[in-house]
């Protein structure tokens, strides 16, 4: 299978942060049959819409872009079975299901990216995670040259994580995600502004509220290049959470089980006084401190410097280490840290 021409290997428009970068080779995958004939390059990277990926320099390898399409819905007595191809747009799937009267994904509306990226990251928002609905994930193992399927348990979902992410070097190209959505829908209104909605809230009211909240807080990447939430919300022990609450009474803290709590990374960044922070054209977004943006002409070096400065300041002030949620891609693949020494001049 031939790759696209060398003139089409630009990555700037293939990731929403729009940093200047290109790949040695770029191949769009429109059918599962193509996967069996891919001449695997090294290094190799699988890409959806690039909304959670930053190419901080030219990628010296092959990029496979997931363009698989199709959605299949089957109704059962107590649930809906939904199978969506990996290249489908996530938000459009949410809208399609909602229009069909299939509810449960409303809290996940307006999350950018593809269906195939959703289980990799275990996307989540406002108290709901996509893992809550996944029954199984089909994929093609480029290393083993075979089509395979994992159950939800085999995917090993965690907070913004999965086996697909922790074993990313295995190169598993997600072809189809199978969801099981109960008909007995109950709105999840536990987070922030959603608590103000009248109960019982209708699905249409919840969907509208989620879209309005996200639109107000998060910049449109087509207007202001960004990769959404740049850092994960950190998890700390209850003891550390209590100590932080005593020192910073206004700090929002969300319990997780009996031993841990989750902190709001955006709050930590904002209250460390970093909303005005910028390095060149890379900056902290003025409305949402969890989002880093490209004001035009930003470079990979600038983004990494900005992110590392934020990490350092938050660690010094709160004793909490922030971990990137966005995938940072260097010349040979995923960067293991924010240090700049690995970048080529």
**Number of extended strands:** 20
- Give the low-confidence spans: 1-7
What kind of oligomer do you see? single chain
Order of helices and strands: EHEEEEEHHEEEEHHEHEEHEEHEEEHEE
How many individual helices?
A: 9
Helix content: 10-25%
Structural class: alpha+beta
Biggest beta sheet summary: 5 strands, antiparallel
Radius of gyration: 20 Å
Strand content of the residues, in percent? Answer: 25-35%
- The strand order across the widest sheet is 5-6-11-9-10
Protein traits:
alpha+beta, four-stranded antiparallel β-sheet, disordered N terminus, single chain, about 350 residues
Describe the fold and architecture.
The protein contains 9 helices and 20 strands. The strands form 6 sheets. A 5-stranded antiparallel β-sheet has the order 5-6-11-9-10. Strands 12-18-17-16 form a 4-stranded antiparallel β-sheet. The radius of gyration is 20 Å and the shape is globular. The protein is α+β, with helices and mostly antiparallel strands. Strand 14 and strand 15 (260-263) form a beta hairpin. 23% of the residues lie in helices and 27% in strands.
């Amino acid at each position: 299978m031939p790759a696209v021409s060398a003139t089409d290997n630009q990555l700037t428009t293939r990731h929403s942060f729009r940093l200047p970068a290109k790949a040695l080779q770029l191949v769009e995958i429109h059918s599962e049959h193509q996967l069996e004939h891919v001449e695997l390059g090294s290094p190799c990277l699988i890409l959806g819409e690039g909304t959670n990926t930053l190419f901080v320099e030219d990628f010296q390898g092959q990029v496979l872009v997931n363009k698989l399409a199709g959605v299949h819905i089957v109704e059962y007595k107590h649930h809906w079975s939904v199978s969506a191809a990996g290249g489908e747009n996530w938000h459009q799937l949410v809208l399609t299901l909602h229009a069909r009267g299939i509810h449960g994904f409303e809290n996940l509306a307006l999350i950018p990216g593809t269906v195939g990226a959703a289980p990799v990251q275990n996307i989540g928002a406002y108290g709901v995670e996509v893992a809550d609905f996944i029954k199984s994930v089909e994929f093609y193992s480029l290393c083993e040259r075979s089509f395979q399927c994992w159950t939800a348990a085999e995917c090993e979902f965690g907070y913004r994580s999965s086996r697909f992410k922790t074993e990313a070097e295995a190169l598993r190209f997600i072809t189809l995600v199978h969801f099981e959505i109960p008909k007995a829908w109950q709105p999840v209104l536990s987070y922030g502004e959603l608590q103000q909605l009248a109960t019982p809230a209708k699905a249409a009211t919840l969907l509208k509220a989620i879209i309005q909240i996200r639109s107000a807080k998060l910049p449109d990447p087509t207007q202001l290049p960004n990769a959404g939430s740049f850092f994960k919300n950190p998890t700390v022990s209850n003891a550390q959470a209590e100590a932080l609450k005593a020192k910073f009474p206004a700090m929002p803290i969300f319990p997780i089980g009996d031993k841990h709590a989750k902190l709001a990374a955006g709050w930590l960044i904002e209250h460390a006084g970093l909303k005005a922070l910028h390095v060149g054209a890379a900056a902290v977004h003025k409305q949402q401190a969890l989002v880093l943006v490209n004001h035009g002409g930003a470079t990979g070096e600038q983004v990494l410097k900005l992110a590392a400065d934020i990490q350092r300041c938050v660690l010094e002030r709160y004793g909490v280490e922030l971990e990137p949620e966005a995938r940072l891609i260097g010349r040979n693949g995923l960067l293991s840290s924010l240090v700049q020494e690995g970048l080529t001049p």
